[in-house]
Amino acid sequence: MLKFLSLSAVAVLIAGPVLAAPDDTVATPEKPARASSAVPRGLMRYDTNKDGAVDRAEWKAAQEARFKQLDANGDGKLTQDELFARTPAIGNSVLPTDRQAQQQSTYFQLLDADKDGVVTLAEFMAQADRNFARCDLNKDGRIDTAECRQALQRRSTQR
Questions:
Q1: Secondary structure of 93-113 as H, E, C letters
Q2: For 68-110, how does the pLDDT look when each residue is reduced to its tens digit (9 = 90+)?
Q3: Which of 9, 76, 86, 125 qualifies as a FRET site for 68, CA 20 to 30 Å off?
């Protein structure tokens, strides 16, 4: 099924959770809010120890936090609406295009391994683990933006 997905769908599968991650510009007592230009974007926002790469522990913690954030009603399960609530539509529309809706449905079905209509933390983390492994081209247990970009490009040329 995956070989029929478009390049943008593959990008959603690998980088979706990364790209949809919330902005971390909120001030905390220990850390003042930073200007948005200084905030790490995409994958590197998960680099909590600031060593220039995201290791498996950082990735896992970030994905668990992401699941909790997406779980709007706190029931420990994600519906398709919860999973894509923050996904912007193209242009000025508030609704996704037909293509976006199809990609979202396909991705949700991929996550929902037991086909019960919801995505549990275990299902979400299984996909997160696959995404990490797919990006970790050199298998050193650490990923960075360049390595993930290379994995995405390599995946699109293998079809």
A1: CCCCCHHHHHHHHHHHHHHCC
A2: 999 999 999 999 999 998 766 666 667 888 999 999 999 999 9
A3: 9
